[in-house]
Write a structure and sequence with these properties.
single chain, 356 residues, alpha+beta, Penicillin V Acylase, Chain A, 2 domains, eight-stranded mixed sheet, six-stranded antiparallel sheet, Peptidase C45 hydrolase domain-containing protein, C45_proenzyme-like
Length: 356
């Protein structure tokens, strides 16, 4: 995956949308086409895709108008129907209409010291045929905060940090009550938190009454003034805060940690989510890393063991069943930066991380 940087300064969401589309239109259009093909391969009907996309955009418009306007401006600039871009932005909501995939995606590890800035790290595991390119975007929000984030082209947000010292990691979940109604897109929730919240408490309050149709967890971290972490698990059955810590590790993969929500967890039994979580839980105790690179070093597999956190495509399987660790990324709340490597933790530990 190749990452492309973009710096926008406008506070007007429509103008921001036009800039994104005029600068990287071909990449957005490729994602629209590839995702619609992917949905079709999963036997999600075009009418279902359109319904979810339209309902999710309406839900977003009611919850965070500026993010909806940004998408509307992109669609207009690209001369495509809004529901097509809406389906891309709501790709997790559309995928909730299909059976949960085997692997889930992503492993997150955050260390919070008693004093000083937290250290964070996560993998982004996804289908390589859907992620030839990605976006690193620095923007100014209407709240006056600056935001730096990684996302897929045509999607509001995913993983990032803001100038108030709040960071957001992102992992998918699966619940029995996930449905095709089309709630607020979870990728948009991640972006909205970065724009509108300056602390974990503000993020929790902001998302208190939000209605989703697909499940996800945001692991939040805040900076050195009051260092802490917490994970917010979202599902159509409710929202729970777990992993809250002011000293120690907060870990998450792709199953619910809240007991009530875990009762409805439908991540397939052969998913690696439990194995990856156990690996994180075994590797992290007693260690106090000070950076994303130090966490990568800690989590990297030795040559004598199979790499638990490093997914690679399996020959002979269809594209919908191919997974790869495409990105390793950490959040620097102190210096307002993303530290990343285009690849898995083992390679990141050997090579080092770049900074955006």
């Amino acid at each position: 995956m190749h990452l492309h940087p973009l710096h926008t300064t406008t506070l007007d969401p429509a103008e921001r949308g036009r800039v994104i589309a005029s600068t990287y239109g071909p990449f957005i259009m490729r994602n629209v086409y590839d995702y619609l093909e992917h949905f079709a391969s999963l036997k999600i009907s075009s009418s279902t895709v359109r319904s979810i996309a339209e309902n999710s955009h309406k839900a977003l418009l009611a919850w965070d108008q500026s993010l909806a306007v940004e998408l509307e401006a992109q669609a207009k600039e690209l001369d495509i129907e809004l529901w097509q871009l809406g389906a891309l932005n709501a790709r997790t909501e559309v995928l909730a209409a299909a059976p949960p995939s085997k692997e889930g995606e992503c492993s997150t590890a955050v260390f919070v010291p008693r004093q000083g800035a937290p250290a964070t790290f996560q993998t982004w595991d996804w289908h390589p045929h859907l992620a030839f390119d990605g976006l690193l975007h620095e923007l100014k929000s209407g709240t006056g905060r600056s935001v730096k984030l990684f996302t897929e082209f045509g999607i509001n947000g995913k993983i990032g940090v803001n100038s108030s010292g709040l960071g957001v990691h992102f992992n998918i979940l699966a619940h029995a009550n996930d449905n095709a109604s089309g709630g607020v897109p979870v990728h948009s929730i991640a972006r909205s938190v970065l724009e509108r919240a300056g602390s974990i408490d503000e993020a929790i309050a902001l998302t208190e009454n939000i209605v989703v149709s697909a499940s996800t967890v945001l692991t939040l971290v805040q900076g050195e003034q009051q260092p802490q972490a917490a994970s917010i698990e979202f599902s159509p059955s409710g929202r729970r805060v777990v992993n809250r810590t002011t000293n120690g590790w907060a870990l998450h993969t792709n199953h619910f940690l809240d007991g009530d929500l875990f009762a409805g967890d439908v991540m397939p039994a052969d998913s690696t989510t439990a194995e990856r979580y156990d690996y994180l839980a075994q590797r992290t105790p007693g260690h106090e890393p000070g950076s994303a690179k130090e966490i990568a070093d800690l989590l990297a597999s030795s040559g004598a063991e199979a790499p638990v956190l490093c997914m690679a495509p399996e020959a002979g399987k269809p594209a919908t069943e191919q997974w790869e660790t495409l990105l390793s990324i950490g959040l620097d709340t102190e210096k307002f930066a993303l530290h990343y490597f285009n690849g898995n933790p083992d390679a990141a530990a050997r090579t080092g991380l770049k900074t955006f």
